[in-house]
Automatic annotation (TrEMBL):
PROSITE patterns: PROKAR_LIPOPROTEIN
Protein name, entry field: ABC transporter substrate-binding protein
Keyword annotations of the record: Signal
Annotated InterPro entries: Solute-binding_3/MltF_N
Domain Solute-binding protein family 3/N-terminal: 62-294
Provenance organism: Lentzea kristufekii
Length: 310
């Protein structure tokens, strides 16, 4: 179902390329707006939840939300003006800010600098397809809002499929440094070596354009990343395909979460805001808007079981 929806998004991207992309594209009943004028789903302030926001955040009147815009649709990417960040992550971020009665300020950072910004206090909140891991819970607090699904994306037309660690033995696989998919791939490689098979040759790329060039030139066999972006790219380019997917938490169900600095006091009101948005249907409305309804969670959890340490 997700591939169908993301294929629709791909057609929407092409359709929005005229007239500055000001009008949303309507394809198969799904309206996709890639312009800076997002007309996002909105929510109203909840005074009881907002009162739980620590004073240092309330007094400045805004919620500074960091995230990477280097991913492909539908996560967090640039609108047709090449400067406004849009996507499912920004929609969720602005909804949370609405409930907390704060003005959202969306900041762009690389993946590594996102966490540096959280550590320094430059960002109050991180929403950038961040998976809960046991290691990360030592430094950060999490409030979940989406399931985490990963995908192996390879050049189209092959017969190779990935279902288990032995399927990537001896293969050249690209990942983004510092992600949970990197850890999964490292663990898989160690397992194949222990079984007497070849190690996986892991390559690191930070920009999607770089690993897609490497994929087309044959320098890598596949890329391991978030399933929504891989499925979208496969539908858009017509040159790649998803050859395997699974939970981003490997042995446990991975969950994507809003991320705050440990003990900042912000995670509880954020979680309560997310649960209100889940209950009133706003959360589901945003996921449907971007074709990610099957990644919905029934409730937001604080610091659930995450990807285990090595």
């Amino acid at each position: 179902m997700r591939k169908v929806l993301l294929a629709v998004l791909a057609f929407g991207l092409a359709a929005c390329g005229t007239a500055g992309g000001e009008e949303p594209a309507e394809v198969s009943g799904l309206s996709v707006n890639l312009s800076p004028q997002q007309n996002r789903v909105t929510a109203v302030k909840d005074d009881k939840i907002a009162a739980k926001v620590p004073e240092k955040f309330r007094t400045k009147g805004e919620l500074v939300i960091g995230g990477s815009a280097g991913t492909a649709p539908p996560l967090r990417f640039y609108a047709t003006d090449d400067k406004t960040v849009i996507g499912v992550e920004t929609d969720i971020a602005t909804l949370v800010a609405d409930v907390l009665g704060l003005k959202p300020r969306l900041e762009v950072a690389s993946w590594e600098n996102l966490f540096v910004g959280l550590d320094s206090g430059a960002y109050d909140l991180g929403l950038s397809n961040i998976t809960v891991t046991e290691a990360r819970t030592e430094k950060y607090d999490f409030a979940t809002y989406r399931l985490d699904t990963l995908a192996f994306e390879a050049k189209k037309g092959g017969t190779w499929k990935v279902k288990e660690p032995k399927d990537v033995a001896g293969k050249v696989i690209a990942v983004t440094s510092g992600t949970n998919q990197e850890k999964i791939l490292v663990d898989w490689s160690a397992a194949t070596v222990s079984a007497g098979l070849k190690a996986t040759d892991i390559k690191y790329f930070q920009n999607s354009s770089d690993y897609y060039l490497a994929l087309q030139s044959g320098r890598i066999d596949a890329y391991l990343g978030p399933n929504p972006t891989s499925a979208y790219h496969a539908a858009t380019s017509g040159q790649t395909e998803v050859i395997g997917n699974f939970s981003g938490g490997a042995a446990v169900q991975g969950k994507i979460a809003a991320t705050t600095k440990k003990d900042s006091g912000l995670v509880t009101p954020v979680q309560e805001a997310l649960n209100q948005l889940i209950a009133n249907g706003k959360h589901a409305e945003v996921l449907k808007r971007w074709g990610l309804s099957d990644e919905a969670v029934p409730t937001s959890e604080i610091n659930p079981q995450g990807l285990p340490k090595s």
